[in-house]
């Protein structure tokens, strides 16, 4: 094998190892963040979790989370308003509530 090919092969090996560990760290961070959000809002959504307005908002909540807040469906808006009306003590962002709705 030519030395240049060997060097290129080694560099590719290191790059893929870095990518894999970076991917794992990123998914671990996202998972931990979501777990903390769900844990913090579980008490909030448990009291409205069986509510039809909230349950019907799950597809809109998924779009909202996936688009990082750019897509705001009518059902999600209704659920957010409903949650805040029923539980005025809730101090969660729209994103946190949407993630909690998805966790129901």
UniProtKB/TrEMBL annotation:
NCBIfam families per UniProt: conserverd hypothetical protein
Family annotation (InterPro entries): CHP02448
Organism, scientific name: Halopseudomonas xinjiangensis
Give one Pfam family, short name only: DUF2388
| Protein name (record) | Holliday junction resolvasome, helicase subunit
Q: Which residues form the signal peptide?
A: 1-20
Name the domain of life this protein comes from.
Bacteria
Q: What keywords is this UniProt entry annotated with?
A: Signal
